[in-house]
Amino acid sequence: MAMDNDDAQRELEQKALRNVRGLVDKIEADDQKSNQKQLVAVVIVVAIVAVAGGASLVSRSKSTEGQTAIEIPPPTKPVAK
Question: How far is the C-alpha of 14 from the C-alpha of 2, rounded, in Å?
């Protein structure tokens, strides 16, 4: 009878440990998914900033194309009368 109680107790303990391990595995998987989502968000933000910076550089270079430089001569000394 004592042996049956020990076996039943051991089975319950093992089942509880398997349940806890399952929960730990689930929590770890959820954390990994969360980390992956954060990484994707950071990559998207960096890509948007890079595209915006590139567009800004392109628009600046196009706005200066075709403009002719105006040369201003240095001032001369006034002639004394």
Answer: 18
